[in-house]
Amino acid sequence: MLNFDRLNRGYDVAATTLLEEVSTNGIWTGELSSSPLSTATAIAALQLVARNQPTRAAEFETLVEGGLKWLREHQNPDGGWGDTTLSHSNISTTTLVYSSFRLAGLDENTDDLLKQAKANIDRQGGFEAIRKRYGKDHTFSVPILMQCALAGLIPWQELPPLPFELGCLPHWFYRWIHLPVVSYALPALIAIGQVRHHLAPSRNPFIRLIRQAAVGPTMRRLEGIQPESGGFLEATPLTSFVTMSLAAMNQVDHPVTRRGIDFLKDSVRPDGSWPIDTNLATWVTTLSVNALRSESISMAHAESISHWLLDQQHRIVHRYTNAAPGGWAWTDLSGGVPDADDTPGAILALLKLDPKDPNLSQSLAAAVKWLLDLQNNDGGWPTFCRGWGALPFDRSTPDLTAHALRALFFWREKQVFDGVHSEQSNVSLMSRIDRAVSAGFAYLARTQRPDGTWFPLWFGNQFSLDEENPVYGVARVLAAYRDWNRLNESVPQFAMAWLADIQNPDGGWGGAKNTPSSTEESALSVEALLPLKRYKKSCDRGLEWLLERVESGTFQNPSPIGLYFAKLWYFERLYPIIFTVSVLARAIEQADQTQTESSGSTYLEEGAAIPSSHGKKT
User: pTM for this one?
Assistant: First the structure.
């Protein structure tokens, strides 16, 4: 049996480590991995601006040279590049890096690095492999091929023309016409569609006329949805693709281009690299709050975090996705977009912090309504926009659905606990929640795979089949069943059995069966299995694996399990710390409530009430 004192010491070390990461304004900013892909696209954009405006070449020279130097230093042994410094090489990133070096005037005949890179691309199937990787989804394949065309590697005619003229239409219309790009990619649709039209116009005079007439209106639309920071979604790749497209059309003085350049200059790191996004401040802050034990956050700190979180709630219709007021984005910066993962995270964090703020009740009710309005007809929750279903990144997804269900549970419990459920507005929301929850769990049951798992949208594992991460998906879905006290049902029982069965011999878990153990996935797995006594041995072994890493300091080593837009890999330095804190906190709270002198059990009997990290019994 695990020593209870050791468990507490492990938590103290992990929690202290996490609290030391708090920034000067009291929240967590985190640190996203540097990205070869982002670095390649950023320096490509700057080179194309300099090419079309030579007077600025000297201004970008240091940035371009720094980026190229960083890329040289981080080439993988196989000649390619992955999305992070810990990632396997892939065709997309390797092609983008290769094209950036070619834009700089280098080629494989005179440069050994590029010779190795070109050989890697050829082994993976050449540029045609990019089309195959993404299939019908043009969101990322077309931008990559565009950069190749700009570097002279392929003719423009090989680039599928994007219907940028659709940017003239109202946002609600897009869901009905099955765009070949996802909802968040409107800037790329407009900019890349326009550069393709500019450099390789359609042979059909009627289509050419329509597209030419749409250039001005869609360019104004692009300018209108660009955030104050200049970074679309705060993402370096998307901003770079837009910037290089406009530069290639000699639009280097356009306001969108100027702001894009400023964003790229502001987001470069001292080592010459760029991350995929500026930060995930809201996301890692809510994760941290929800992971820590309540006594680990002082009253003053809790108030500070709460005020900051309430300030981040979006209060007006979002000009990019047309999202209604009430949600939260992943960041506090202007490029963020409200979504169905960060909004539940914020709801849960605020309920846990429970600040004495007169606006709290109204803000939470607005957030709950926002979530309810976003739910799809299939019962699941999508990331950004209700009703989009043509491409995977716009469909309902189990991990977000589970997170939304958890937020709805704790908000509902608070209304009952506070005795305010009789108010007319809350009666209406309560009724809607009951229907939404029923549909949500039906969606989860329907989407469970034959082996008992679920695949998440925003997380993966580079060692598993098809790079999916069923461990993350199962862990997040089981949290919803746990909070709603439904773990005795067959659906979660099946999933828990699968999770316990794939535990590695070393006691940890990877993203799937027979994948290397990681801190993140081991912590998530143990936390998912903790509630039931039958998995005590598995949990003991998992906690032992984690505690050994806490004691050695290696628990802080991150793994590239995060997936960004278009399945772009990242790792976040705080993820392994946060997930470790969360599982150790839950194990301690569970022990506090269930341990008896006679049994010393740290686990619940089958069907017993499960301790909540929010301080109530569920």
Answer: 0.93
